[in-house]
Amino acid sequence: MTPRPPLLLEVISEGPHCVPCEYAISAVDLVAREFGPLVRVQVLETKRPRDGRRFMELCRRLQGAPPVPSVWIQGRLAFEGIPPLDQLRRRLKKALGWADNHSKESSRCPTRSW
């Protein structure tokens, strides 16, 4: 069985001067660490040219500019603003196909018990 690629978490940010953006990035990083290699975090700064292409793709998908900050899971808007940690965990578990009662013993997530 081929391992599936990690889940992509994207955070739309204006940059380090945006305090809510920094909180959203910290929240995503904190929860993502619990899932180890099963998730990958990417921060898209609206003012950084190298992130412009992806930002424009997300704009087209929404038919407008995404909220800043916002969190995307696999290319879909998941949270506007700073995500609550417990809700982000639940969304990631659902995206990974885990049931709500998924236990540490039967999971591939080595650092967190639900």
What is Rg?
A: 15 Å
What portion of residues belong to β-strands?
A: 15-25%
Known CATH architecture: 3-Layer(aba) Sandwich
Q: Strand-and-helix sequence, N→C?
A: EHEHEEH
Number of strands: 4
Distance between the termini: 26 Å
Which spans of ≥5 residues are poorly predicted at pLDDT below 50? 102-114
User: So what's the CATH class?
Assistant: Alpha Beta
**Taking strands numbered 1, 2, ... along the chain, how are they ordered across the largest sheet?**
2-1-3-4
Q: Helical element count?
A: 3
Largest sheet: 4 strands, mixed
Task: Provide the number of structural domains.
Answer: 1
Under CATH, the homologous superfamily reads Glutaredoxin
Mean pLDDT comes to 87
Structural class: alpha+beta
The helicity comes to 25-40%
* CATH topology assignment: Glutaredoxin
Bulk shape: globular
Q: How does this structure look, described?
A:
The chain has 3 helices and 4 strands. With about 110 residues, it is an alpha+beta fold. It has a single domain (about 5-95), classed as Glutaredoxin (3-Layer(aba) Sandwich), CATH 3.40.30.10. The protein has a 4-stranded mixed sheet, with helices on both faces. The longest helix is centred in the first third of the chain and has 17 residues, at about 20-35. It starts with 6 loop residues before the first strand and ends in a 19-residue tail after the last helix.
